[in-house]
Amino acid sequence: MGYKEEGKWWVSPSNYAEEVTSKFNFPKKVEFIDTTLRDGEQQPGIILTKEEKIEIAKRLDKAGIQRIEAGTPAVLKADEEAIKEITKLGLKADIYCFVRNMKKDIDLAKECGVDGVIAEILGSEHLLNNGKRWTFEKAVSACIEATSYAHEQGLKVTFFPADGSRADIEFLLKLVGEVYRNGHIDSLALVDTFGVFSPEGAAFRVGQLKAEFPDLPIECHFHDDFGMAVSTTIAGLAAGAEVAHVTVAGVGERAGGAPLEATALSLEAIYGVDTGIDMTQFKELSEFVEKATRTPIHPTRPVVGDKIFLWETGLPSSLWMNVKDVNPLFMLPYHWSMTGHRMPELLLSKKSGKDNVKVWLDKIDETVTEEQFPELLLAVKELSLAEHRTLNEEDFRGLVEKIKA
Known about the structure:
Strand order of the largest sheet: 3-4-5-6-7-8-9-10
Radius of gyration: 25 Å
Largest sheet: 8 strands, parallel, barrel
Domain Pyruvate carboxyltransferase: 30-283
CATH class of the largest domain: Alpha Beta
Shape: elongated
Number of domains: 2
Structural class: alpha/beta
Organism: Enterococcus xiangfangensis
Family: Belongs to the alpha-IPM synthase/homocitrate synthase family.
Keywords: Transferase
InterPro entries: AIPM/Hcit_synth_CS, Aldolase_TIM, PYR_CT
Strand content: 5-15%
């Protein structure tokens, strides 16, 4: 891969400079676990039915997601039933569920037929002692018992110490170390529960965990409270972490988590990392999740927004018309087909220029004289300003008819 891939993307050559890439330590294989069905549903107001969860799981699998966190069976019988149905689908993805470090949760997970569990404990001393009001010894004992039991049941175990990003590092290392040595951990989630990592801080903490547990795969579960989740997740991977936790369109608790689409596309195009993800599924997948969650996706949301391949303003519209048949990437960071979008379009507003009007005249199969053209362009601008919006076909037809009358 390079900074310029024909028909795919055109990013900055600086991204691929040896002075930059030599500092990276990406693993040989990066994997994704999508947590839309659990963390995504924790966003206030999002309630997913069993049928919706099953359909989302199918679509995630179609997109090539390597692991799917299917939910928390202890929440409700319906959630347990949804997980059971998902595990029966025969998907290529491994199916995990979220559990507390309790044997009864492990039993539920086993009954659901999942491949593995994500076993949560509060991983910072301040929340364990003050929020949960547990002692360190009680937490360690519970985790050792539950993770060992999960392993005995044939389940893979991702240990999930929440708020690990804010934990005192010695406390976190001690907690993980006790469970790693005396219980069972297949992989360790570094959890930025409150989205407080900087990219540099995330990379540093991944490095600390790798130094202490060199044989333990590290997973990045980072939230987006400062709008940094994509950057921090990629920084963690570049420091050697193997797994990215994501959700479709970034849905999730508070400000959400690392969005699947921007994380995967950035890794591929900006960092040259093969994700194994079929990004052409992104638009359709996000639209289904938007409908299921009843949560509108912002029209300019990176990668999946409805308006990211549209122009209203005169100069970029003219530039696009001049290059679209030569090389679309002269005017785009990545090709629309990569993520399942439609071809770019020109719109009409007070910011528009002559090429916008020409395109729309062709669209409605109308013509005006050379003398009428400036008058039509001015009428477009004035109506858009008066209506405080982009114009539609009915608006434009009316203006053309009035000019030609």
